[in-house]
Specification:
about 350 residues, mainly alpha, 434 Repressor (Amino-terminal Domain), extended
Length: about 350
């Protein structure tokens, strides 16, 4: 029998997790997010407001555009750091996809010649990525023969499973032990899988089998550091809420040594909501104060230029045009009127 799904709980989980992706991938910009995930703004807005669920076709499209599993939208603990990282990378690729690198065929050919002797062997697709391409078309056009040779060598080596071959090169235990000890004794230990990747291993399995105690010690230190960091989230958030100006959630995440806000939101959703509410109130108050200062210059017989006002207020011209368009028009109109008044006596003389 299939498990029963609570539609209210599912709607809330989808809304909350979509909001996490929205903040992480598009910095809360709904319009930009709808472009990334190819979803109509009205439909996405209704879902974010908790009014309705997305259709399965729309949900699958969003998951494909972000390169994340559909289940991440309904996970009670929220999207993982890996899911968020994958979504960010996919969006970055989509942003850059319209810009095709301009490379001469001779440059591509030289790269292919060098890659032919790479150890371990790499695929043509990997070479294309390193050159900034999203497909291998340009490489095959430059030199199809070399591409065939590289592919044949990559397949002969076992492709991505080259490390499983009996004759694959192995890193000596002394070198691995030195790297692991350095990581263990450092202030912030490097995860075992990253050390394995730096040595050309596809995963940390071989390193863990050879030196299990050192690997386990690093795992324990990293786990303890993560536990300590999670315990600091609440006090740091409470302190940030009382600050003036109120910092953004991203700034609080940086203070905790994280580049993602999803972890903070997952562990302290109430405090995060309160912080963002205080932040929005601070921004609204600050914007209103800036507008009053901008309006004050209109009392002068010849107000300064818009650019000069922006410098005085410490804001940019685009910000001024976006938030205070009426003030901008008034400043321009008053300056034109003052200039015309000064020009009339000179003309009459």
């Amino acid at each position: 029998m299939l498990p029963l799904v609570n539609p209210i709980a599912a709607r809330e989980l989808l809304r909350r997790n979509l909001k996490v992706y929205l903040e992480e991938v598009a910095n809360g910009n709904v319009l930009a997010f709808t472009e990334y995930v190819q979803c109509p703004g009205g439909m996405l807005g209704s879902c974010l407001a908790g009014k309705e669920l997305l259709r399965i076709t729309s949900l699958l499209r969003i998951a494909r555009c972000l390169n994340v599993p559909v289940c991440s939208f309904f996970a009670p603990e929220g999207p993982t750091a890996m899911d968020i990282g994958s979504a960010k990378r996919e969006v970055d690729i989509r942003r850059k996809r319209v810009v095709i690198p301009s490379r001469h065929a001779s440059e591509i050919r030289q790269t292919l010649r060098t890659a032919l002797d790479a150890t371990p062997p790499i695929s043509v697709m990997e070479i294309a990525r390193r050159l900034g391409y999203t497909t291998t078309d340009s490489l095959y056009k430059a030199d199809r023969r070399f591409c065939y040779k590289i592919t044949a060598r990559y397949r002969q080596a076992g492709g991505r499973s080259w490390w499983l071959k009996p004759d694959a090169p192995r890193t000596c235990n002394a070198q691995m032990k030195e790297m692991l000890e350095q990581s263990l004794n450092s202030t912030e230990p490097t995860p075992v899988y990253q050390l394995a990747a730096s040595l050309g291993h596809p995963d940390a399995g071989y390193m863990r089998r050879q030196l299990p105690e050192l690997c386990a010690a690093i795992d324990r230190r990293i786990a303890q550091a993560e536990k300590d960091r999670l315990e600091r989230i609440g006090p740091i958030l409470k302190g940030a809420i009382d600050e003036n100006p109120v910092p953004s959630l991203t700034e609080v995440a940086r203070r905790l040594g994280s580049s993602y806000t999803a972890i903070i939101q997952r562990h302290e959703p109430g405090l995060c909501e309160l912080l963002m509410e205080r932040r929005r109130a601070y921004i609204a108050e600050r914007t209103a104060d800036l507008e009053k200062q901008a309006i004050a210059v209109l009392g002068q017989s010849m107000p300064p230029s818009v650019r000069a006002v922006c410098r005085r207020l410490g804001i940019t011209v685009p910000f001024m045009h976006k938030h205070f368009p009426t003030v901008v028009r008034s400043i321009i109109g008053q300056r034109q009127s003052s200039s015309a008044d000064k020009a009339r006596p000179a003309m009459s003389k």
